[in-house]
Amino acid sequence: xxxxxxxxxxxxxxxxxxxxxxxxxxxxxxxxxxxxxxxxxxxxxxxxxxxxxxxxxxxxxxxxxxxxxxxxxxxxxxxxxxxxxxxxxxxxxxxxxxxxxxxxxxxxxxxxxxxxxxxxxxxxxxxxxxxxxxxxxx
Length: 138
Ligand code: FE
Hints:
CATH topology: Metal Binding Protein, Guanine Nucleotide Exchange Factor, Chain A
Strand content: 25-35%
Structural class: alpha+beta
Bound molecules: fe (iii) ion
Number of domains: 1
Radius of gyration: 14 Å
Mean pLDDT: 94
Number of helices: 2
CATH superfamily: Peptide methionine sulfoxide reductase
Oligomer: single chain
CATH architecture: Beta Complex
Largest sheet: 6 strands, antiparallel
Low-confidence stretches: none
């Protein structure tokens, strides 16, 4: 993983669109089925839209039917962090980029094998890179 990225709210606002700031930095959620990646099946990697870290691969992406891009595993356990989220009065587990702390989405335990996990992410939190390879290198 690259060096940790730390920025002030003002710095994030400068480099992110208002919607990306709302989701990545204020833990918002984009509406289902309107994001740019829930229906994308191309080969490549998905980077953090805030810091560029490679986070997920098309190899673990699957159609969950939820309307959000869904993966059963990250590229590396080290690249994502999870935290308990009780904001909506239901227990959910938040997923964040380990490098910059930005909000990506949530992980649920109703995914397919081999992990049984469903990383349910916001398209706006991701940046698809068709040239990327699963080991995270160009
Ligand atoms: Fe990041």
